[in-house]
């Protein structure tokens, strides 16, 4: 079984090369290089591979640019824009996110050698002595590219979108017009750098003095607060001790007063007990005297009664004797 190499029949290839269609005629044009034709090179697959190689060669020799086609309106009419339709397409296609990603990243990349190798010999000594990455950084700063708009890599400088246009132009512009302008920018950058150093030292000294004064005032305030706290604590301790002594004296006075009160109550109770006993004795004496008086009166009455009875008896006896 023969291998299927997808070759075209020579008659079919000749018919296509003589086609009135210019595109077909150019695709299947006969090989005029003088080399011996090989069936493998005339296959459709081989032609496709050759076309891909040619396309990749063209792409690698150019800069990649992305074009997104947006439909402005559904009526397909010119000069008519539908904002909601355009915005919906931008959102659905991810264009907004792509723009945000490009803005946040560093899409522009320039090798150090493109600038260092071309302009090194024409720069002042203080720039020529720098390494490639710092040389490129100095050029970027001299060209008013902000430090936040680029990052230094190992072999390339990475810039944010639209921030490295001047550096990209340096690779292609004529050196005779670029070098004087670049030297002026470097001199101005050197003056700004020296002025920035002086200003930084002056501002640093001012900030240090302000910080020193603030720390000194804070230390004084802390020392004053600490001394005040010590005095307040000593005063509080003395006041507590004084209150303790006052309370002790008051407690002692209360104890003495309580003792005197108890003693007075005891004396009062003793006096009251003596008075009750005396009253009881007096009462008993009065009762005994009253009893004695009553007994005396009864005795006297009894004696009187007895005397009267005796007298009566004696009188009766005397009367009887006289009659006899």
Automatic annotation (TrEMBL):
It comes from Haptolina ericina. This is Myosin motor domain-containing protein. GO terms for biological process: actin filament organization. Belongs to the TRAFAC class myosin-kinesin ATPase superfamily. Myosin family. Residues 1-172 form the Myosin motor domain. Keywords: Actin-binding, ATP-binding, Motor protein, Myosin, Nucleotide-binding. Residues 52-74 are annotated as: Actin-binding. GO terms for cellular component: cytoplasm; membrane; myosin complex. Gene3D superfamilies: 1.20.5.4820, 1.20.58.530, Kinesin motor domain, Myosin VI head, motor domain, U50 subdomain. Residues 257-324 are annotated as: Disordered. InterPro entries: Kinesin_motor_dom_sf, Myosin_head_motor_dom-like, P-loop_NTPase. Residues 257-310 have a biased composition (Basic and acidic residues).
